[in-house]
Amino acid sequence: MTQLFLFNVFNGLIIGAFYALMALGLSLILNLSGVINFAHGGFLAVGGYLAYTLMPFIGFWGALAVAPLLTALIGLLVEFVLIRRLYGRDPLYSLLLTFGLAFILEDGTRYIWGAATVPFDIPDWMTTALSDQFFFLTGYRLFMVLLVFAAVAALFLLLNKTRLGLRIRAGSGDLETVSALGVNVRVLRNLNFGLGIYMAGLAGVLAAGMLGLQPTIGSALIMPSFIAIIVGGLGSLPGTLLGGLLIGVASGVVTVFFPSASEAVIYVMMGVVLLVRPRGLLGEEGRVQ
Amino acid sequence: MNILEVDSLQTYYGKSHILHGISFHVGEGEIVTLLGRNGAGKTTTLRSLMGLTRAREGSVRLFGADTTAWPPYRIAAAGVGYVPEGRRIFANLTVEENLKVPLERPGPWTPDRVYELFPRLRERRFNKGRQLSGGEQEMLAIARSLMLNPRFLLLDEPSQGLAPMIVQEVFNVIVGMRAQGISVLLVEQNVRAAVAIADRACVLDDGRMVFEGAAAEFAADEARVRALAGASAERWEAA
User: Fold this and answer.
1) Residue A49: its pLDDT value, please?
2) How many CB atoms within 10 Å of residue A212?
3) CATH number for the segment(s) B27-52+71-238
4) What are the residue ranges spanned by the domains of chain A?
């Protein structure tokens, strides 16, 4: 029983780390540019497939390093060509655009790589369990959780210690004033979008190693990621991180006792948070976007 | 040489016509104060100069270049510091972080130097913007605009909501800016305090320029000052 419980908690932690990684990217883009990026899951799939294609040439580690960067590059391009035209308009426009983009990305990956799940080879030593008792604790899973936490730590360092990060944080509250202080906000929004997409690409490579790759891999993760943002509190990145981990672990724990409710519990949590604390766990009061 | 030349500026918010063709200039090393009642178009004038609300007709020339259609960041990068109405401090950033947001133009101003100018900001450097008092926020807004090493400073009602002693402190700093060769355009409701430090005064009424001349000449016309100053002058006298 303890083993089963731990197994599911750890599973929940992994899934939660994914939600958090996705949700942080979504949050960055939403906070600075007011765009709800429904195509985020599509970028995640692109990241995974790029890694899959690159791996025969540059190996797992090379693909892990390069594929998210390439995904971010595509993100920069998409922002430059499409998304920036809709800034300052009703959010509905960008919502519709990214919604369409999500379909394009999903069907694009299906067209190029096929609809069937493709195997994603990770180094052999990573697939073996670390101990007999904790059979679920493979090197890869542990590595994945650690890498996600390292990525999140790096993101928070960037946001708190670099000028780029400070400008992103300042602009999330008052972009006009940032612009009046001499910062090129077009470039700022572009880089910020790329940063968000980088995180989606990274999540894609990691997810591919665990779940295998199919074109719908992103759309399965996007809804819980939005819920992570709402639970954690709109506008708060630490809140988003907390929200992602919380709903992941909650869903893992519920799996032990009541498996069929493991997905519903996420929505129940959102409902409870919205009733008790509408701004989310760490959200700021009276924040308007 | 004039660092700012505004010619027949017309600005609208949507359909409402705010500025009806105003013209004025700011010379190098001058403090010019822009006065007028609430809703006269003072803030809109500054926003048009900064490129935040683009003028529909007329032209703005800064440092000799036509900047009418420039985006705000380009105008700032040319050396224009802007202290917006209500300060607009980044509430979720610390004082020190607020100072790192502006573009770094080369020049004498560094965080250390602005901390010398405003010792209180140094004491509060690890506090978030939202934890500051109104006076500290005003100081931070000025300090933040100085990090850009501006040649020209636009200030929108720096005395708003401040205790008279703090107002005096802030105005002393503005006079100090002129001594360092920074030209200043000062929008104020606090008419007496503003004309006391300005070289020239411009008065806006209903989006039209109704007076432009020496600040001393305007200050001497008690009836005019009284008409314009209203309640804020009484507050100043009471202090």
Assistant:
1) 95
2) 15
3) 3.40.50.300
4) 13-220
